[in-house]
Amino acid sequence: MKNNHFKILTLSILSLVGVSSCTDLEIEETDSIISDGFQGLADPSSTVTNLYGSLAGQYAGQDNYFALQEVTSDEHLIPTRGGDWGDNGLWRVLHTHDWNGQHAFITNVFQLWNGNQLQASQVLDSRSNPSATNIGDASFIRAYSMWVILDNYGQVPFRDTSLPSTSVPEVLTGQAAVDFILADIETAIANAPATQAASGEANLRASKAAARYLKAKVLLNKHIYVGGEPNGADMAEVISLVDAITADGYALQEGYFDLFLPDADTETIWALEANTINKVVMGLHYNNTSIQGGGWNGFSTLAEFYDLFEGDAEFNELDANQEPANGQEERRGGVPTIGVPFDNQPYASELDGYVNGSNVGYGFLINQQYALDGTPLKDRQGAPLTFKREFKDGTGAVNFINNDETTGIRIQKYAARNGEASISHQIVFRYADAHLMKAEAMFRSGGDPTSMINDLRTIRNTEELLGTVTAQDILDERGRELYQEAWRRNDLIRFGQFGRDWLFKAPGTIDNDDYNVFPIPPAQLLANPNLVQNPGY
Q1: DSSP string, 419-444
Q2: How many percent of the chain have pLDDT more than 70?
Q3: RagB/SusD domain spans which residues (predicted)?
């Protein structure tokens, strides 16, 4: 990858600097009052604000958390194109499941998200005199951060702030970890404000709806952490939690790609003020976008994932009104044969680096790409700029390396044409996911969620409704609805498909459940003897 691929990672870099707690959860001097160990925070509200900023940085980038959730799946891969995106295999090993505990992203996520929960614990310490609002925010952030660590690593180091800073953090696993996280969520529900859908800035922090969503997510995945099968009582509670979110006015909303604008809507349960530029440009060609400086020409998707959507597998141009054509469903998007004028981009400005308009479509971009005036674009060698389903090297062989500039179908969800490069608004929890969690809970407890799945398909303007749904139908619908929202790894594990074969998967990792969690970084094992390396590593 070229050096300029990392120039725009301001928030991610800030998060690495701002959350500098050692990976063994050693407490460092910030605004806390320190004499003999931790004695309390002088300004817990400021720490809460900083925590949300850290989360935004950790969530914003195309690396670290996003890469572990998406590039490890069938949804994203980054082939090496010439000298670009080699990075000593940093990206390739995620898609092939050939990673180890030294991988930078695996190490960073463990450190950063454990740092979140330590700072949240400092806020929650009674010596910090937190307000009820502080307690709601910190309990929510600690629960979310600890759940991320549990889901990705299977064990969570936890430091009790009442103990000396030299004490070794205990490690929570299985039921004990789930119980701790659920207790924090209950505290968040009790102390966070009740917000209504479409309430804008109120959805940038913890709310009762966001905490209930997180609790539903934990319960839906609980059997993965504690063993056994999904519990009927847990599934019933997932349904009840989603119903409570619905009662606050959250609902499915039409206009799929409009949901990813910063406008208020009925689906955004929780969003972060996280810049979207990385996710706008990470897959676009250098000549493909009207953003000055061009795209990074990296991230692509597998043809098998693209084929989950309705429509012609080889052709997805938009019609004259910039709407999906050729039988494609709305969520698949398409390629515009002519650009959108500058004046029609609601969040663009000349200061954002936009020139006259955008020539980039929504959703999945395949085949010929076009300039603003409809002229077919070319790549840097003068060949037609046609994004291809296959990944082939110079000899025509299918290969992960030595690809040309045009291999791979690209994705635009936070879209260049909306001026999203300048918008700090990324959705973390969305109602459509809650809707699908309820449908899945119904299915896992013996109910029939067909009408719920078809309600979503109808509002997304699909041409076909499903018959009696299967587990595969639910997983596929989650893929179509939630792609690029950092849920694919979690979904594949829950449905028992993270270990299945896909293009370029390393043979030794196929059907191997050891890779459902990442290795504990070696430095962590040395710092905390209570941690134990995960099986298979």
Answers
A1: TGGG-EEEEEEEHHHHHHHHHHHHHH
A2: 90
A3: 267-537
One-letter amino acid identity for 508? G
Residue 288: which of 415, 420, 422 has the closest Cα?
Answer: 415
Cα torsion 363, 196, 452, 236: sign: positive
Centroid of chain to Cα 351 = 28
**Local structure of 161: helix, strand or coil:** coil
9 pLDDT band (50/70/90 cuts)? very low
pLDDT for the residue 4: 38
Whether the Cβ atoms of residue 112 and residue 58 lie closer than 8 Å to each other: yes
Q: Which of 35, 57, 16 is nearest to 426 (CA)?
A: 57
Q: What is the distance between the alpha carbons of residues 537 and 519, in angstroms, rounded to a whole number?
A: 6
Q: How many CB atoms lie within 10 A of CB 385?
A: 21
Reply yes or no on whether the pLDDT at 310 is more than 80: yes
End-to-end CA distance of the chain: 28
Tokens of 340: 């959108």
Mean pLDDT (whole number) for 260-284: 92
Interacting residues of 240 by C-beta distance below 8 A, sequence separation 6+: none
Percent of the chain with pLDDT over 90: 79
Which token pair is 67? 């890469």
Q: Which of 49-63, 233-247, 356-370, 419-433 has the lowest mean pLDDT?
A: 419-433
Closest CA to 212 of 52, 437, 56: 437
* Rg (alpha carbons) of the chain, rounded to whole number: 23
- 3-class DSSP state of 367: strand
Residues 282 and 62: beta-carbon distance below 8 Å: yes
- Which stretch of DSSP H or E encloses residue 40? strand 37-41
CA–CA gap between residue 336 and residue 344 (Å, rounded): 14
For residues 416 and 280, the answer to whether their CB atoms sit within 8 Å is: yes
pLDDT tens column, 199-212? 877 899 999 999 99
Between CA 362 and CA 355 the distance in angstroms is: 18
Taking the C-alpha atoms of residue 59 and residue 274, their distance in angstroms, rounded to an integer, is 7
Mean pLDDT of the region 251-264 = 93
User: Among candidates 12, 23, 148, which has minimal Cα distance to 521?
Assistant: 23
334 pairs with which residues across the strands? 362
pLDDT band at 350 (very low <50, low <70, confident <90, very high): low
What phi, psi does 317 have (nearest 5°)? Answer: -75, 150
Question: What's the rounded Cα separation, in Å, for the pair 130 and 199?
Answer: 25
- Distance between CA atoms of 358 and 177, rounded to whole angstroms? 47
> What's the full length of the chain, in residues?
537
Helix crossing, 471-482 with 450-459: angle to 10°?
A: 30
